[in-house]
Specification:
About 40% of the residues lie in helices and about 10% in strands. The structure holds zinc ion. Zinc ion binds next to strand 4.
Length: about 280
């Protein structure tokens, strides 16, 4: 069963990669005929597109499992998202007795992280997992009613990372019934997660100092599954999912028009607030 699924996923990834390559070649041939780009004579002879030089492979970016989905106020998920057949019930240690569900692929990674954390003396508690569109709608409505206006503290329906089924609030025992704040980052559990989450395919979804990009305050307890390769790259480069999405889409677009992706090798200096507002407009 497991193997079959793996085989199917691999075949799908391969098929997607082939489709991508065929399309890219088609595009290149079209642009090569119409005297564009400053490609050298050697480049024109060679009908292959520019080399793929982005640090993440195109097979992973083709995202056969849909783990790179972006949910925020500018990218709203459908009411029907995700496919309910892909949700499983969480049985890891929880912060409350309420039933929690998660996306299959993300949950498998979560379970592994909880087990291995415990082996290292770190006891994690799952506080919140999948949240449906409808639940988010009610939460948002209640917040607006109680405040008298939308203060932005509760995400609108479709905008929550929790709706992906791959976003998790994870805490330590002493924080199970506390109101969350950034001090959680100082706990042993918070520090362990920041240091090790990428090994299991997780990122800290709402990074410190990136409030102007994500629109959300620093949440050292909210992890999001994106797969090991992507998580490792994002955490090493201090990238939000908004920034990563913009970056890899730029890399794919460059490749499809036969160009190389030339990213700055070093991250840009820390921007002052307001400099990254364009990140919302990709
Ligand atoms: Zn959360």
């Amino acid at each position: 069963m497991m193997d079959m699924k793996k085989v199917c996923t691999m075949m799908l990834a391969a098929a997607l990669a082939l489709t991508g390559a065929a399309q890219a070649e088609e595009l290149f041939e079209f642009s090569a005929g119409s005297a564009v780009t400053g490609s050298s004579a050697q480049g024109a002879e060679n009908t292959a597109a520019a080399d793929w030089n982005y640090p993440i492979s195109r097979e992973i970016l083709a995202d056969p499992d849909g783990v790179l989905v972006l949910a925020n106020k500018d990218h709203l998920l459908e009411k029907s998202y995700p496919d309910p057949s892909k949700l499983v019930t969480a049985t890891v240690r929880k912060a409350s007795s309420s039933k929690m569900q998660a996306r299959d692929v993300a949950y498998a990674a979560l379970e592994k992280m909880f087990t291995e954390a415990e082996a290292q003396g770190i006891r994690l508690y799952l506080k919140s997992a999948y949240r449906s569109y409808r639940t988010q709608e009610v939460m948002h409505y209640n917040r607006v009613q109680s405040m008298g206006y939308d203060d932005g503290m509760v995400q609108a329906a479709g905008a929550s990372d929790h709706q992906t089924g791959m976003g998790f609030d994870i805490v330590s025992k002493s924080w199970t019934d506390r109101k969350m704040n950034r001090d959680f980052a100082k706990t042993e559990e918070g520090q362990w997660m920041a240091a090790h989450c990428a090994e299991y395919g997780f990122i800290i979804r709402y990074l410190d100092g990136k409030e102007d990009v994500t629109g959300i305050y620093y949440e050292p307890w909210h992890l999001r599954y994106v797969g090991v390769e992507v998580a490792t790259y994002m955490m090493a480069n201090n990238l939000t999912l908004e920034e990563f999405t913009e970056e890899y889409q730029r890399a794919l677009a460059a490749y499809e028009s036969g160009e190389s992706w030339d990213a700055p090798l070093e991250p840009e200096p820390v921007p002052t607030f307001g400099d990254e507002t364009d990140a919302f407009t990709f």
